[in-house]
Amino acid sequence: TVASAAFAAVPPTQTCLNCHERIAVDSDKLVLVRESAASGKPIRWVKVHDLPDYAYFDHSAHVARGVGCASCHGRIDTMEQVTQVERLSMGWCLECHRNPEPHLRPLDAVTVMDYQPTEPQEVLGPRLRAQRNVNPPVDCSACHR
Predict the structure, then answer these.
(1) Could you say which of 3, 67, 82, 140 has the lowest number of CB atoms within 10 Å?
(2) Is residue 125 part of a domain?
(3) Based on the domain organization, do 69 and 40 belong to the same domain?
(4) Which domain covers residue 84, as residue numbers?
(5) How deeply is 13 buried, as exposed, middle or buried, from its count of CB atoms within 10 A (0-12, 13-18, 19+)?
(6) Taking each helix axis from N to C terminus, what angle separates 13-20 and 31-39, rounded to the nearest 10 degrees?
(7) Rounded-to-integer distance, Cα 100 and Cα 127, Å
(8) Alpha carbon separation from 47 to 34, 88, 97, 114 (Å, rounded)
């Protein structure tokens, strides 16, 4: 849903099983996934990146402009347990809104965790910003609604 909705929904168990029917099948860490698949009951996810209710964040706006998942979430593909790696504070968000170029990627690379630009980011970022007309808002009402 991150590409089409303002929120990020938790994945259904089948999404996990797309890989884990073949990878780490017998891992103790996947007990809840296997139980969910067997029972048909959804997994009770623990929210890691939890913003305050007064802060509005639109995932789809960021994905559509080419902000990579790792920019906010870190390299979750290498984490033993997913943890919050960035502050996600107002100041942290504003830093990116004022200077988004370091976080912009080709749209087909947004979800690629180990993405490496094919040209210097100092060249790629400004080009993508101009092509996509990326001008993130910095006024209060953009995030405080």
Answers:
(1) 140
(2) yes
(3) no
(4) 53-133
(5) buried
(6) 120
(7) 11
(8) 20, 14, 24, 23
Write down how long the chain is. 145
Q: What is the pLDDT of residues 92-143, one digit of tens each?
A: 999 999 999 999 999 999 999 999 999 999 999 999 999 999 999 999 999 9
Structure tokens at 22: 């073949």
Cβ–Cβ under 8 Å, residues 103 and 123 = no
> Quick check: 30 and 20 in contact, CB under 8 A?
yes
Residues with Cβ within 8 Å of 61's Cβ and at least 6 positions away in sequence, in order, are 6
Average pLDDT, the chain: 92
Find out whether 1 and 9 touch, Cβ atoms under 8 Å.
yes
- For residues 72 and 88, the answer to whether their CB atoms sit within 8 Å is yes
Asked whether residue 106 is assigned to any structural domain, the reply reads yes
Among the candidates 28, 45, 62, a domain finishes at 45
Hey, what's the torsion of the CAs at 137, 140, 144, 145, to 10 degrees? -90
Q: The pTM is what? A: 0.81
